[in-house]
Amino acid sequence: MGYQGGFSSGPREMHKAICAECKKECEVPFKPKEDRPVYCKDCFSKRKDSGR
Predict the structure, then answer these.
(1) How many structural domains compose the chain?
(2) Which domain holds residue 31?
(3) Confidence (pLDDT) at 17
(4) Tell me: the pLDDT tens digits for 1-52?
(5) Residue 28 phi, psi dihedral angles, 5° rounding
(6) pTM for the whole thing?
(7) Is residue 21 part of a domain?
(8) Backbone phi, psi, residue 50, to 5°
(9) pLDDT value at residue 3
(10) Is residue 24 a part of any domain in this protein?
(11) Which of 11, 35, 38, 47 has its CA 20 to 30 A from that of 21?
């Protein structure tokens, strides 16, 4: 009993990253991997809206 499961309700750990498209520094809620591009919020939503 009392087990909520999933993620803790505390603040998410954010990690600094450089956007692969606009080259601005941003923060993401996951640890970026060297072999995968990371996008800031703006570039990510532009890519998602355009279907890549």
Answers:
(1) 1
(2) 15-50
(3) 96
(4) 555 555 556 678 999 999 999 999 999 999 999 999 999 999 999 988 887 6
(5) -125, 150
(6) 0.68
(7) yes
(8) -85, 0
(9) 54
(10) yes
(11) 11
